[in-house]
Design a protein that fits this description.
By secondary structure, this protein is α/β, with parallel strands linked by helices. It contains 13 helices and 11 strands. Bound molecules: nicotinamide-adenine-dinucleotide (NAD) and glycine.
Length: about 375
């Protein structure tokens, strides 16, 4: 996998606020900074002249930020409609996909027109998938409004919905034409959702950027407080992801490392029925990464102090790290094993796990006996 130093502020793009995802003719910019929603019309029209658009958003984000986007699009002459969906993970469903597809077709948007996703990862994944399948692929602009979406889900072209049988099981790779991450929109995000997004930032350090993890250890409070450290953490995360996506767009190898903690985390989300009151995605990832590190320690791979350090960092950021912290009816090993069996990384019936030899030393492991996972989960549930 291509790797770059963790502290370059710019990867060759025109300005420090721009990170480029290098995919040849399908390359695109990620613009990061405050106030971008007001510049959205200009930035989109510059890259996609003459388009019409459908803005997909959720009720919460619509109430907070949609008017400003509509004004900016109108000012740039972009004719558009809006599709407002309920907020929350359960919106990533066939029913809402059908609704978006139908409304986009009803407006007779063409292949060269665009779906604009204004929202968190739920809206980005759903709207992106709709744009992938309408007319076999329309253009698509990501305007992420959560920290999680700004550092992860808006970048890299994974789109999709959940199935009652599991998380993200129906979807497509479909890259956006542009990502506009307005960091000022994060000011309206709840502390819980901010912390959930922070888990995905920590993920990059835990996978293969120990120096970034050290930096986060020193600057966690400043990232939460806002200011330059927050923008820097978002930029570093986008750069880390852009490098991985450029090297392995379709997850044939190295991109799977970005799923650190997700095999366990997705199983936890499925087990609570995607109920955001009990668990949101980033919290599932925080617990899942802790489990991946602890499982690695149990297998003699990862020093216990590294697993403890990762967990302590997540806890200091206000994130849950234990299965027993999930409110509501206790989860069972059988429920979690059923979720793990549906993981997209299962190959010939065997799950692939992302394990680690220490902070920043994650690797793929396809040879894990399900009985070992089961016994580990029994212990973790009782912890
Ligand atoms: P989300 O989209 O549900 O947003 C979380 C909550 O924050 C929602 O209630 C939303 O209405 C609210 N919200 C959004 N922006 C806001 C703002 N600026 N101010 C106030 N409230 C705001 O959840 P999420 O955490 O952004 O995304 C999680 C989803 O992303 C999951 O479905 C996960 O599977 C997916 N994901 C996808 C990828 C990918 O590569 N495609 C990567 C990581 C996660
Ligand atoms: N969030 C995992 C990926 O984009 O591959």
């Amino acid at each position: 996998m291509k790797r770059e130093a963790a502290y370059q502020t710019d990867n060759g793009a025109a300005t420090p606020r721009c990170v480029v995802v290098d995919l040849g003719t399908r390359s695109y910019d990620i613009l990061i900074g405050p106030g971008l929603v007001d510049e959205a019309g200009t930035e989109i029209a510059r890259r996609l002249p003459g388009i019409r658009a459908a803005v997909v958003t959720d009720e919460t984000v619509a109430g907070l930020h949609l008017d400003r986007l509509s004004i900016a699009l109108r000012a740039a002459g972009i004719d558009h409609s809006t599709i407002v969906l309920p907020a929350g993970e359960t919106t990533k469903s066939f029913a809402h996909l059908t609704q978006v597809v139908d409304e986009v077709l009803a407006q007779r948007l063409e292949r060269d027109d665009a779906v604009i996703a204004l929202g968190g990862g739920v809206i980005g994944d759903l709207a992106g998938f709709a744009s992938a399948i309408v007319r076999r692929g329309m253009r698509f602009v990501q305007m992420p409004t959560t920290l999680l979406a700004q550092v992860d889900s808006s970048v890299g072209g994974k789109t999709g919905i959940n199935s009652p049988r599991g998380k993200n099981l129906v979807g497509a790779f479909h890259q956006p034409s542009l990502v506009l991450a307005d960091t000022a929109l994060l000011d309206t995000l709840s502390p819980r959702e901010f912390a959930a997004g922070y888990a995905e930032i920590v993920k990059y350090g835990l996978i293969d950027r120990p120096d970034f993890f050290d930096w986060l250890d020193r600057n966690c409070e400043a990232v939460f407080a806002g200011g330059p450290e927050r923008a820097d953490a978002i930029r570093q995360s986008c750069k880390a992801k852009a490098v991985v996506v450029a090297a392995d767009e379709r997850e044939n190898a190295g991109r799977a490392l970005l799923n650190l903690g997700h095999t366990f985390g997705h199983a936890l989300e499925a087990a609570v029925g995607y109920d955001s009151r009990r668990l949101v995605h980033g919290e599932g990832v925080a617990i899942g990464m802790t489990l991946a590190y602890r499982f690695s320690t149990e297998r003699g791979l990862c020093p216990a102090e590294d697993a403890d350090r990762g967990e302590a960092h997540l806890r200091a950021a206000g994130l849950p790290t234990r299965i027993g912290e999930i409110p509501g009816a206790p989860l069972t090993t059988a429920q979690l094993m059923a979720g793990i069996a549906q993981d997209k990384k299962v190959k010939r019936g065997r799950p692939t796990f992302i394990l680690t030899r220490g902070i920043g030393r994650a690797f793929l492991e396809g040879d894990v006996a399900p009985a070992a996972v089961e016994a580990f989960l029994d212990r973790e549930i009782a912890r």
